[in-house]
Automatic annotation (TrEMBL):
PANTHER family: BASIC AMINO ACID ANTIPORTER YFCC-RELATED. GO terms for molecular function: monoatomic cation transmembrane transporter activity. The lineage of its organism: Bacteria, Bacillati, Bacillota, Bacilli, Bacillales. This is SLC13 family permease. One of its GO terms (biological process) is potassium ion transport. The chain crosses the membrane at residues 6-21, 28-45, 57-76, 97-121, 141-160, 172-193, 403-436, 448-467, 487-520, 532-552, 572-592. It is a multi-pass membrane protein. Its main location: membrane. SUPFAM superfamilies: TrkA C-terminal domain-like. Keywords: Membrane, Repeat, Transmembrane, Transmembrane helix, Transport.
């Protein structure tokens, strides 16, 4: 192994460690590695920037706009709501909802699908007394399975396609992956409807947790001079036995922390009382003279009655700029004109005042915000707005524009299917039509694009180039072949799949595909087998992120709203991951080899 190979491999190991321990946002970690490769001379400027002009990456950017435009109308949302209303039992409900959802995900970006449908499912479940946790992980998994069916189903497929073109290969057609994607999706859905459903936890939904006894939400109240029980003990002040609430900590003079709070603890002016429990009871508490709810804004919960503010449920993204900062440090109030009144973190009681809570991916924030908050931040990269608790989930848009956008989507699919235009040209034309007919504005188009995802993809492509250029990909391929070749091509396919899938669970799906594709192509060339089959295997394995909530954005979106634990994903996702792997390897071996 040469010095350059050792340098690149050490960088990759450091990158993996930083991503696993969430030292910084994934896109910034991978972009930093790219800059180091450029400064070290491993990559030239053209090589480092090649990912930013890669056809696959640019197609992903355009597809964000197409998907956002189609979903802007709310037509698909209303269609799914009607399907759910007429369902008879859980199996019928799953068939009615998740089969169409998988089909939509084959042609639309699955992240906005999950963001849009999460509140619809939660509301439907809560109205029928069904635990939303029985439906939200399946929602995420169904969109992932659907994304494997076509080239445009997920950004990973497009990135692999773009890389193959860069390597001088033919790339995928729109339906190259379909021969594997449809059987995998069908088997996966059958598993979710049967065994998977039984393995899912029976958790209360977000709305139920607010209405019922819950001790997982943190809120803060400040004692003022007007409080009628100053100088009295907690018990005398009536703060000990509150229905649905528990006083877990008192913060005094911003540095003294009293925890646990005893019945004999004396209440003083300026004390910050940290409660955990019911939001509705906390709202009642602020009616007591001298207790003020800390929202970080000028909004007051009493404003809910006149409709001037909303309560909004938002989940912190794994690509958020809010990560690793306290709510106060992130200047949340001034940035979003919204206040955080409660924070929910799975399986963990947070002992801190609201402003000092350091946010993590998957945290659920209960926000008090203006009526235009959902419209302004629905496409934010910092968090996923999964429901507005007081306003309709979808915005009322012009129905004619909605049907027109769906028509353009179908036309785009047909032009690619018939071979008239490449995927990139077809999506570019669709975006041009949307802009020229004013179905969307340039400002809206910009909001739909997830620039952090594009930075991650483009940077990952440069790292893949470094692996090829230094010979590291060739060396890793040789090591894997020495082990797997005597055991046969099927074992080699399993090795490639498992490595790719492990990478996608601990880093990101696009980065996993970019790292494994050069290795897979080297192995295919050495074995003189069709590299298309290896590329399909890597695309499927990189998308099949079922075992952790952090491997795929859609898993993270439902993590907080479903009240899941990390182990729930392992319990439900591991058998599904095995089914997808065995099915994929079997089909790919028989079709391409």
């Amino acid at each position: 192994m040469s010095f350059e190979m050792m340098f690149v491999s050490s960088l990759l190991l450091t990158m993996f460690a930083m991503l696993i321990f969430e030292v910084a946002r994934a896109d910034m970690v991978i972009f930093s590695v790219l800059i180091i490769l450029l400064l070290s001379g491993i990559l030239t400027v053209d090589e480092a920037l090649s990912g930013f002009s890669n056809e696959g990456m640019l197609t992903v950017a355009l597809l964000f706009i197409v998907a956002g435009t189609v979903q802007k109308s709310g037509l698909i949302d209303r269609m799914m709501e009607r399907l759910l209303k007429n369902s008879r039992n859980h199996t019928d409900s799953m068939l009615r909802f998740f089969v169409p959802t998988s089909a939509f995900s084959a042609f639309l970006n699955n992240t906005p699908i999950v963001v849009t449908f999460t509140p619809i499912i939660k509301k439907w479940c809560e109205n029928r007394g069904i635990a939303p946790s029985k439906f939200l992980i399946p929602l995420s998994y169904a969109t992932i399975l659907g994304g494997m069916i076509t080239l445009m189903g997920t950004s990973t497929n497009l990135v692999v396609h773009g890389l193959m073109l860069d390597y001088g290969l033919d790339g995928f057609s729109l339906f190259t992956l379909t021969v594997v994607g449809i059987p995998v999706a069908l088997i996966g859905l059958v598993y979710l409807f049967t065994i998977g459903y039984k393995l899912l936890p029976d958790n209360k939904g977000f709305g139920q947790q607010i209405k019922e006894d819950s001790k997982e939400y943190i809120a803060e109240m400040q004692v003022t001079q007007d409080f009628g029980h100053l100088g009295r003990r907690v018990e005398q002040a009536g703060l000990r036995d509150l229905k649905g609430l528990y006083l877990i900590e008192i913060i005094r003079d911003d540095f003294q922390r009293i925890s646990p709070v005893r019945s004999t603890t004396v209440i003083q002016s300026g004390d910050r009382l940290i409660f955990t429990g019911l939001i509705s009871t906390i709202a009642d508490l602020q009616k007591i003279k001298g207790l003020e709810l800390e929202t970080g804004t000028n909004f007051d919960l009493d404003d809910l009655k006149d409709g001037s503010i909303n309560l909004v449920d938002a989940v912190v993204s794994n690509q958020s700029s809010l990560l690793s900062k306290s709510i106060k440090q992130s200047q949340f109030r001034s940035r979003y004109d919204a206040g955080v009144i409660a924070v929910h973190r799975n399986n963990e009681r947070i002992r801190s005042k609201i402003g000092d809570i350091v946010l993590k991916p998957g945290d659920s924030l209960l926000l008090v915000a203006g009526t235009d908050f959902v419209e302004k931040y629905q496409q934010s990269n910092d968090f996923f707005v999964v429901s507005s608790l007081d306003t309709p989930a979808s915005l009322n848009q012009n129905a004619k524009k909605g049907w027109f956008s769906i028509l353009i989507l179908f036309a785009m699919i047909m032009t690619v299917t018939l071979g008239w235009l490449s995927m990139f040209k077809a999506t570019a034309l669709a975006v041009l039509v949307f802009l020229s007919t004013k179905v969307i504005t340039p400002q809206e188009a910009k909001k739909y694009v997830h620039f952090n995802v594009l930075l991650l993809i483009a940077s990952s492509l440069g790292i893949g180039t470094a692996m090829m250029k230094t010979g590291l990909a060739d060396w890793i391929a040789a090591v894997l072949l020495d082990f797997g070749e005597p055991l046969g091509i099927v074992v080699i396919l399993f090795i490639i799949y498992i490595l790719t899938n492990v990478f996608t669970e601990i880093i990101t799906n696009s980065a996993a595909a970019v790292i494994m594709l050069p290795i897979g192509i080297e192995m295919a060339q050495t074995l003189a087998i069709d590299p298309i089959g290896i590329a399909v295997l890597i695309a499927i394995a990189a998308s099949a992120s079922f075992v952790t909530p952090i491997g795929y954005q859609t898993n993270l979106i439902v993590y907080g709203p479903g009240g899941y634990k990390f182990t729930d994903y392992v319990k439900v996702g591991f058998p599904l991951s095995l089914l997808v792997m065995v099915t994929s390897v079997f089909i790919i071996y028989n079709v391409w080899f």
